[in-house]
Each structure stands twice: as C-alpha cells, then as structure tokens.
Amino acid sequence: MRTKTPQEKKALSLEKDRRNSYGGNDKASRKSIPKRKAEVNRVYRRKVDSILKNTETAVDLDAVADVGEDVKSIGRIDWKKDPDEPLGEVIARNLESREIHAGKGKTARKKTRTFLEELDIRVEQIEPERWIASVAEHPAITAFGSSKERATEKLLHLAHVAKRNELGANMRVQIDGEFITPTLSK
Description:
This protein is of the alpha+beta class. It is built from six helices and seven strands, in the order H-E-H-H-E-H-H-E-E-E-H-E-E. The chain has a three-stranded antiparallel β-sheet with strand order 3-4-5, with helices on one face. Strands 1-2 form a two-stranded antiparallel ribbon. Strands 6-7 form a two-stranded antiparallel sheet.
C-alpha cells in the first residue's frame, strides 16, 4: 500500500470526517443522545409492563395467549441521532458565511476608525454659502455642504462607507435622491 500525499489525506479527511451541525452545544450531545435512547426504551418497557400487570390476575389460557400477541404488537419507537455533516460541507458553509458577513465585524470597524483618524481633510469655500471638503489621497471622495462643518461631516460619512465597502461590506449612500456605492478608488 502506497503512502498518501498530504493533499490526498486532506481530501479524504474532508470527505470522511464529520461535525455535529445540529445547532446546540456540541458537548450537550454526550448526555442528550444516551438520554433519548433510554427514554425510548423506558416508554416501551412501561407499555409492556402495563399489559402484563393487567393479565396477572387472568386465569384463562386464551387470555394469556392474547397477552403474548398484545406484547408483540407494541411498536417500539425508533429514535436515531441525525447523522453528522461531512467536514468539507461544514467548512464550505463557514467560508460562505464569512464572505457574506465580511466588513461587518469588530476588526472592520477598528480599521475604519483608524482610517478616518488618519485622513488629511481639506475644506475650501467655493461660494458664500457653499463649501467643498476633499481628501488628497482619495480624490474620488468629495463632499459639498452649506458650512465648513457640514461638508466635513458629509465627507467623513462618505469615507466611512467607502472604507467599509473596501473591506467587503456592500453599503450604499443616497446622494441627491440617487443611491451610490462609494469606493476609495477613482
């Protein structure tokens, strides 16, 4: 028998190894599976005992023969644990979930906060009641406002959304009645 390469071992492991995907605590199954099996057996024994107790006082041989038939007719509830999921499927589902939730976690918020703190914002007055805020490193992000503070506030919001989109989120912003997806690139 030839030795397997690490790639073959991994493929075999992903196919054959299994993980509990029931959704509960994985440690709880140590107790709950034997408990459920015992419960099924207990119910069956109680039904049989109740039939046998009713016939203890019977003297008639036909009644005793009927008891044997009654006991045989009792159906045992068939309980089996659902099979665990192959490791390859569990990993594929987890990777898909990561892609869906990318850019929404604590790390993304921390990176965004750091990015916003390091921005070099320039604000200029265009007209008496109109200001423009821009970032030198990212010319695609500009914002207009009626005051210097409002233009800066809008710019920070756009920069925040653009950075989160770069990290994998799919956020949109409404500007002049139109929804756009801001990005840091031009």
